[in-house]
């Protein structure tokens, strides 16, 4: 096999859809949930960030973090300081930076948390006496109230919509139907852009979608006039529809090309103020 055939085979492998079970187990490794039970209905904020960035959740450098410490009466979680939080290195810092950025973006987009609470009963305590003639005393600790916050699928989907961000494969797999419904709307807009580009090509033979004139905002104005559905879309969201459909020239400046081509494809522009 020559180098070209090898590279072609590698590309086909990379583009092949990921196996759903592989995605589930990889996500479980990153976010720390039981893959054997399938996708959780809800995620804790740190788990959601882990799936957003595609690796294990790492808190900011040097920040105290919860430690799970084994006690004689079972596993207890209490605040502590993890020395590993002080580890340095390019990879560690890169991952922490990705977590911080994702966390900040989600916060600015208004990701809504829901509060949960439930009683937790620790395992029984076995109290041993120094007198071997006395029996072991077993004491059952009283139930403790535990409170935590979660991210629901609806809250995550609404937040991503406000961000205008297409999530990675882990988040898409977790969202399931909640994301696929939104993805259908995205694809319909991409089809509309594809049809518009075809009309422009027919009206202007020298036009190329691989070297678009002007700026994205200029083309966005034409799309809004072409399809009213784009009037309810933000510019940043619109930009996410374009990969794979068209490319803009580097250093392009404002242009009237799209306003001038509009009448030829049956589009009426509103007058500029």
Break the fold down into its secondary structure elements and pairings:
Elements: H1 3-15, H2 20-31, E1 42-43, H3 45-53, E2 65-71, E3 74-80, H4 90-108, E4 114-120, E5 125-127, E6 137-139, E7 144-152, H5 153-163, H6 169-175, H7 177-203, H8 216-226, H9 235-241, H10 257-261
Antiparallel strand pairs: 1-7, 2-3, 4-7, 5-6
How would you characterize this protein structure?
This protein has 273 residues and is an alpha+beta fold. It contains ten helices and seven strands. It folds into two domains: 17-175, no CATH class; 180-265, no CATH class. Helices cover 44% and strands 14% of the residues. The strands form three sheets. A three-stranded antiparallel β-sheet has the order 1-7-4. Strands 2-3 form a two-stranded antiparallel sheet. A two-stranded antiparallel ribbon has the order 5-6. A hairpin with a 2-residue loop joins strand 2 and strand 3. Helix 2 (20-31) crosses helix 6 and helix 3 (45-53) packs across helix 4. The chain starts with a helix and ends in a 12-residue tail after the last helix. Residues 5-17 and 67-81 have low confidence and may be disordered.
